[in-house]
């Protein structure tokens, strides 16, 4: 009798493990599909910078890779400055202004009409505006 119970319990455990692994593999496939979609999907953001005495503005414009985005730069731009770019996948939108007078410096990253990152004054000068890709999550 004990042997039959152990055999039945073992069989149920194996069946449960097989079902669990099947569910895990389906979840893994879905995760891989989501990553593939996220890597290939594109999105638009608009960068805005305002302030005085701005020396340069560096920004991600879509070149390079998500892990090593290529920076583009504009020297001595007229303000307020605005630029719309198309980025791909998980590449973070980023705009980094450099100003001789950061007291009134502001940068923004806008996606679908919503500000997803904003920084002012010293914060804008120190780190600019770097957001998480809006297609992540």
Specify the structural class: alpha+beta
Distance between the termini: 53 Å
Average pLDDT over all residues: 82
H/E element string? HEEEEEHE
Question: Could you state the oligomeric state of the chains shown?
Answer: single chain
Percent of residues in helical segments? 25-40%
User: In angstroms, what is the radius of gyration?
Assistant: 25 Å
Which terms would index this structure?
six-stranded antiparallel β-sheet; alpha+beta; 137 residues; 34% helix
TL;DR?
The chain is α+β, with helices and mostly antiparallel strands. It has two helices and six strands, in the order αβββββαβ. The protein has helices at residues 2-40, 121-127, and strands at 42-64, 69-75, 81-88, 94-111, 114-120, 129-130.
Q: What does this molecule look like?
A:
- The protein contains 2 helices and 6 strands; from the N terminus they run H-E-E-E-E-E-H-E.
- It is of the alpha+beta class and 137 residues long.
- Strands 1, 2, 3, 4, 5 and 6 form a 6-stranded antiparallel β-sheet that branches.
């Amino acid at each position: 009798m004990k042997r039959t119970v152990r055999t039945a319990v073992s069989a149920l455990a194996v069946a449960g493990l097989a079902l669990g692994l099947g569910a895990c593999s389906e979840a893994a496939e879905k995760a891989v599909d989501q990553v593939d979609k996220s890597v290939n999907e594109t999105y638009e953001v608009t960068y805005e910078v305002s302030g005085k005495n701005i020396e340069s503005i560096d920004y991600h414009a879509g070149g390079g890779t998500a892990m090593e985005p290529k920076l583009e730069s504009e020297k001595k731009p007229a303000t307020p400055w605005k630029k719309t770019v198309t980025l791909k996948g998980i590449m973070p939108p980023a705009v980094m202004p450099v100003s001789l007078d950061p007291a009134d410096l502001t940068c923004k990253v806008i996606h679908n009409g919503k500000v997803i990152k904003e920084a002012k004054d010293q914060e804008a000068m120190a780190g600019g505006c770097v957001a998480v890709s809006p297609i992540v999550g």
